[in-house]
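Fill in residues.
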């Protein structure tokens, strides 16, 4: 059965991001193909107390939501703590600019059963149009497809990529050793944007996508993915802000978007439902 294969990664705090992004994909996609959603996680609370793995309970709830849209949808939790500790513990990039969870996609070739085509997504994005517009991109002969980084294309290289949206051709990535080379860089070379730089430097051949597939600054009618990454604002004075889609009040106040109202309304309902069910379950456990 043909599927949309999606990969997220993160700690226990990515629940809101996965839920909102997942809902946006379901609501904006007319294609009947089911989704397989993989969630890479790990426990490295030795680095920071909040670096704990996303729970199976949360992944089970995400799967319930997914199946409410299509009974064939599934959510698969992948705990890669052992792989991380073996590969990257103590590496120069363990304290990287974002978090060590951004490095987990570099283990894709080490996980049995990973499909031939995999769409990696950061959790801070929403689909504005059908996922098939991106997923069905022909990447034969390319290790992956990616859009340019909004700031990096000016400051670093015209074809410097943003690694928040990566459509991987897994057989070719394994053949060229993309992930192996990237892991070696992580182990040996301190880099400013660790995961992104490692992938970029290890690439043999990539397909450049239109900015509409990973728009890190604006939302247009043609935008397929709006990526809520940190961005620069010039008024009332030059400053950066890191507003995510689940920061609903700030998102409305700063961007004024209404295109995602249906997604965020359902997110609010489902987040409340999960918290209510969790609280009820904990009270029952205390009684028994």
């Amino acid at each position: 059965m043909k599927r949309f294969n999606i990969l997220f990664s993160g700690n226990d705090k990515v629940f809101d991001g996965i839920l909102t992004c997942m809902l946006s994909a379901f609501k904006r996609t007319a294609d009947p193909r089911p989704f397989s959603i993989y969630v890479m996680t790990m426990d490295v609370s030795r680095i920071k107390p909040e670096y704990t793995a996303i729970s199976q309970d949360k992944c089970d709830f995400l799967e319930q939501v997914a199946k409410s849209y299509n009974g064939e949808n599934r959510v698969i939790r992948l705990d890669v703590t052992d792989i991380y500790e073996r590969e990257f513990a103590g590496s120069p990039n363990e304290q990287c600019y974002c978090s060590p969870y951004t490095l987990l996609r570099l283990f894709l070739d080490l996980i049995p059963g990973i499909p031939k085509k995999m769409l990696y997504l950061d959790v801070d994005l929403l689909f504005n149009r059908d996922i098939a517009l991106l997923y069905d991109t022909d990447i034969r002969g390319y290790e992956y497809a990616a859009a340019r980084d909004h700031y990096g294309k000016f400051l670093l290289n015209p074809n410097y990529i943003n690694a928040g949206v990566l459509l991987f051709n897994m057989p070719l990535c394994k053949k060229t050793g993309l992930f192996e080379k990237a892991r070696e860089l992580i182990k040996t070379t301190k880099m400013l944007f660790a995961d992104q730089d490692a992938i970029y430097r290890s690439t043999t051949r990539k397909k450049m996508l239109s900015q509409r597939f990973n728009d890190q600054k604006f939302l247009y009618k043609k935008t397929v993915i709006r990526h809520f990454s940190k961005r620069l604002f010039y008024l009332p004075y030059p400053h950066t802000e890191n507003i995510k889609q689940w920061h609903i009040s700030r998102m409305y106040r700063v961007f004024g978007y209404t295109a995602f109202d249906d997604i965020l309304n359902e997110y609010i309902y489902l987040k409340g439902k999960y918290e209510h069910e969790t609280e009820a379950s904990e009270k029952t456990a205390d009684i028994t």
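DSSP finds ten helices and eleven strands in the chain.
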